[in-house]
Design a protein that fits this description.
It contains 10 helices and 2 strands, in the order ααααααααββαα. With 231 residues, it is mostly helical. Strands 1-2 form a two-stranded antiparallel ribbon.
Length: 231
């Protein structure tokens, strides 16, 4: 974790230097104390975010199957720095939990190496809380929706019923959230093929994601930490 800290403080120093250069470029007096105060505030913000992210990372790593001593040092550094970069950018805590869970191999695998993690990190960071909930619910019902002659597109209707009962999402809202997930490549939409309207179904990419992280477990832990009605 020390390498990540060094990188974060370097970012603060770079921002401080750029601020001074911009002031000088416009012929404005460079008030050293003002810039220093800005850097101090930035450091304080980073420290708060890093502390929270560190607690999340260590907690999720303890639940996974990937031990740090099993991974090359450069892999650990790359994964940790990308994770901490997300933290200082203000990525939501739920998304940080998902990143940590993905890296630690909580679901079925042994965790990700740096190249794989870096590919997933941007996608995970982009997800909103309600999108994570919809994706997790859809995938669970899709897997469970089996039987002779069953049209699996019906899983979306079951998921919508559960989302309405448990999350307060009406059909219009869950349709909108599901449609927004198209940008991720995790879902596809079939129109008019099951009882009219649209049916949302998972792609293989969503299956890959669910095989890496215990998404529903992450949601439960996040909700327990945040309390009711918080995201």
């Amino acid at each position: 974790m020390g390498l990540a800290y060094e990188g974060l403080w370097m970012v603060a120093e770079i921002i401080n230097a750029v601020a001074a250069d911009v002031l000088a470029l416009y012929g404005l007096p460079v008030a050293g104390t003002t810039v220093a105060l800005g850097a101090t505030a930035w450091r304080s913000l980073i420290a708060q975010r890093v502390a929270a992210a560190r607690d999340i990372l260590t907690g999720e790593m303890s639940r996974g199957t990937k031990a740090l001593h099993d991974v090359a040092e450069d892999e650990v550094a790359a994964v940790t720095f990308r994770y901490m970069r997300a933290a200082i950018e203000g990525t939501a805590r739920l998304n940080l939990r998902l990143m940590a869970a993905t890296a630690s191999g909580q679901a079925h695998g042994a965790g990700l190496y740096a190249d794989d993690f870096l590919r997933w990190a941007d996608l995970i960071a982009s997800l909103r809380r309600e999108e994570v909930i919809v994706l997790a619910t859809l995938y669970r019902e899709w897997v469970a929706f089996t039987g002779p002659g069953v049209n699996k597109l019906g899983a979306w209707r079951v998921a919508q019923t559960l989302l309405a009962a448990l999350e307060g999402m009406d059909e219009k809202t869950s349709d909108a959230v599901g449609t927004a997930c198209l940008r991720t490549g995790l879902i596809q939409i079939a129109t008019g093929s099951y009882g009219g309207g649209q049916s949302i179904f998972p792609t293989g990419l969503l299956g890959d994601f669910m095989s890496l992280a215990d998404v529903e477990g992450v949601l439960r832990r996040h909700q327990a930490d945040q309390g009711p009605k918080r995201s």
